[in-house]
Amino acid sequence: MLTSIAATPTSTSSAGAIAATRLMPHVVCMNLQDAQYAIHAVGVFFSRSRDATGAGRRQIIDRNWIVVAQSPVPGTPISEGDAVLSVVKNGEPNSCG
């Protein structure tokens, strides 16, 4: 009986339809907190951030960091953990102006 429940095609197609509607927003030049909110707004609640300088610093207070690059590009379908945001601290050199 468990086999027939697990093989139900409706659950597979529903999951695919939901995932297809989660598109990566454009978040470059946002502070990290606002970028995370934008990603949450499309239904994805786990994203990652990394220090774009390569120094390996942790992002403790998200509002103190600015997103300078993102992966994947805007408009790409995403799921949990797919979004990777490269950040620098506010005031550090960046292309955001």
Overview features:
single chain; alpha+beta; disordered N terminus; 97 residues; globular; 18% strand
Strand order of the largest sheet: 1-3-2
From the spread of the alpha carbons, the general shape counts as globular
| Strand element count | 3
Q: Give the helix tally.
A: 3
**Proportion of residues in helical segments:** 25-40%
Please outline the major beta sheet.
Answer: 3 strands, mixed
Helix-strand makeup class: alpha+beta
Which blocks of ≥5 consecutive residues have pLDDT under 50? 1-11
SSE string: HHHEEE
The N- to C-terminal Cα distance equals 60 Å
Percent in strands = 15-25%
Mean pLDDT comes to 87
| Multimerization status | single chain
Q: Please give the radius of gyration in angstroms.
A: 17 Å
Could you please describe the fold and organization of this structure?
This protein has 97 residues and is α+β, with helices and mostly antiparallel strands. 28% of the residues lie in helices and 18% in strands. It has three helices and three strands. It has helices at residues 2-6, 9-20, 32-41; strands at 48-51, 65-71, 84-89. Strands 1-3-2 form a three-stranded mixed sheet, with helices on one face. The protein is globular and about 35 Å long.
